[in-house]
Specification:
Elements: H1 7-18, H2 22-29, H3 33-40, H4 49-59, H5 63-67, H6 82-93, E1 109-117, E2 123-131, E3 137-138
Antiparallel strand pairs: 1-2, 2-3
Helix pairs in contact: 2-3
């Protein structure tokens, strides 16, 4: 049955059957209204375990009831070239990160610059990126 209904549809229908508004469900689950709206809008295809557990508790479900509607993203790193990774690292170092997108799913990349001390006691900048939706990351 989970193939016929999306995660978004399942959560919205279950919330409505339980008689909760989005705000009401947000209060019951300690999730933000924006998180629930994103889930119900289909922006989330799979959920972090903590989010799934909070939703399940708020909707009086088992987390497995929700998980069956999630879509696992199969990440293929074959598409990602070394040139792409090098260019993303350069953009992070130049703080040009506003429009960086994941090459796998197209979601926004969360970026940061880690400052490390090398063997000569000099600061080395190390750019990192992690997708906000799938498991893609640059370490």
């Amino acid at each position: 049955m989970s193939e016929l209904k999306s995660l978004a549809e399942f959560i919205r229908e279950t919330r409505e059957k339980a008689g909760f508004s989005i705000i009401g469900l947000a209060k019951r689950t300690s999730l933000s209204v924006e998180q629930i709206e994103d889930i119900e809008a289909g922006k989330e295809l799979f959920l972090p375990a903590t989010t799934r557990q909070k939703l399940a508790k708020g909707l009086k479900l088992n987390p497995a009831d929700i998980k069956q509607y999630e879509r696992i993203m199969l990440v293929s790193y074959d598409k990602v070239t070394n040139e792409y990774i090098d260019s993303v690292k350069q953009m992070i170092l130049q703080e040009e990160t506003e429009n960086l997108r994941c090459p796998i799913c197209g979601a926004k990349l969360n970026t940061k610059i880690v400052r490390l001390i090398d063997l000569e006691n000099k600061i080395a900048l190390h750019p990192k990126a992690q997708c906000s939706k799938c498991s893609f990351q640059i370490k």
